[in-house]
Amino acid sequence: MPEQTYDLIVVGGGTSAENVADRAVQGGLTAVIVESELVGGACSYWACMPSKALIRAGTALAAARRVQGAAEAITGQLDAMAAFSRRDTIVHDWSDQSQVDWLESAGIALVRGHGRITGTREVTVTAADGSTTVLTAKHAVALCPGSASLMPAIPGLAEVEPWTSKEATSAQVVPRTLAIIGGGTVATEMATAFTALGSTVTVIARGQLLSGLEPFAGELVAEALRRDGATVLTGVSANSATRTLDGDIAVILSDGRTVTASELLVATGRVPRTGDLGLETVGLPPGHWLQVDDTLLVQGHSPALAGDWLYAVGDVTNRALLTHQGKYQARAAGDVIAARAAGRRVDDAPWGAHVATADHSAVPQVTFTDPEIASVGLTQAAAEKAGYRIRVLDYDLSWLGGATVLADGYVGHARAIVDEDRRVLIGVTFVGQDVAELLHAATIAVVGEVPLERLWHAVPSYPTLSEVWLRLLEEYGRPTGA
Q: Can you give the residue ranges of the Pyridine nucleotide-disulphide oxidoreductase dimerisation domain (predicted)?
C-alpha cells in the first residue's frame, strides 16, 4: 500500500476538479487528481459537449430553412450518422488522453481509481485491479465527484433499462420512437436533438416544461417541439413501465393513457455521487448533497473537520448544476486553498476573490433548445418571493431589425426584472434563435449592478438582436438627464 503526499488531493476528475487543482498549483501548491473514469468528466463526454453537438445539426438546418434564399438550397435531410460522427470527434471517441496530457503539462498528478476519505486529510484510492494507494494532503482535500441521473421509484422502470442522459448523448443509432420522462433542461434538449435526428418523440412532464424559468420560455419550447412533430404531454406523470412482447417500452401515465416507445429516456433530476466517498469517516451522512460556505468549505460539526481542510466543488454542492458555475466555484476554491496554505489574507467578503457569491443570485445558463433560452439571475416569481420591489419589462424580439434579417418569421421574447429600489437589473431572460450570445452582456449588467441610467449610454449596434437592450430601457422610460 504505497503512500504519497501532496498539498491538495482532488477526488474526481471533471472540469471542476481540473480547475480547482490548476488554480492551487498556480498558487504554489502540489496537487493530485483521483479519477475512476475519464479525466474531463461528464461535461466532456456525456453531457455539455456531446449533447450540444447532437443538437447543433438540427438547429443549424432549421436556421437555414428560416432564411429565404438559403432554404431553397436545401435539397436533402439531416444526416444522423454524420451528426453522430461529428459528436464522436468532439468527445475524442471517449478517450481522455488529451486531458491527461493537459494535467501533466499543468503539473497536476493523476491517480486512477476510486477515492474514499479514510481519515483527516487522507484519501485511499482503490485501482481497478484492487490495489490501493494512500494519499495524504498537507493542506486540503477537495471533493468533486459530480452528480448522477436520478432514477425515480416508478414500478418497473429499472427493469426496462431506460436511458439516462449518458446513454442519450452517447447513442450510436436513432431510435424509431423515444419517450422522455421529465420536463427540464436535459429532457427538452434531448427532445430537440432526437426530433431533428428523426425520432418520433413524446415528452412526459409532470408540470410545465422548464418550470424553473420564466413561464413563456417553456411555452415557446413546447410550441416549437409540437410544430416539429413531437408530442408534449404536460400535467401527467409516469405510473409504471414495462417491456412489450415486441421489445418496446410501454409507459402507463397517471391519466390512464399509455405511451409506447422503442427507447425511454429518464431525465427527472440529479443526485449527488456521495454514496461511497467515506463521508461517514468525518461525521457526514453519505449519499447527500454537501453543504459549503462561500469559500467552498464543507460545513459540519465533526471534530474531524477541524482545520478548514475539506472542500466540495461543483454539482455536489447543489448550488448550480452547471459546468461554468462549477468552474467558477473551482477558481475560488483553488485560490483560497492556496491562500490559506500560505497564510495569506482570505478575501471572503461578498464578491471577494475567494468566494462564489454569484451562485446565489447571478447564475447564467443557456438551454439549447430551438428556440434557445438564455437567462441570468432571478425570474419574476423568484424576485417576488425574495421580497424585491420590482418592475417587469417585456419585449417581443420579432420587432427588432436584427431579428428580421436573422430569420423569416422570427419568434422570440425578452424579459428583464428591475429592482426598483436600486434601479438595477436582477434578472434577464431571452428566448429565440441565437439569443445565447446576448447572455454575457446581461450577466455583466446583473453581476455589476449597472445602474439603468448608465445602461442608456451602452449603445447597441444595429441591426442586431442586441438592440433589445435599448427597447427594454425604452419600456422602462428614459431617466431624467440620461
A: 363-469
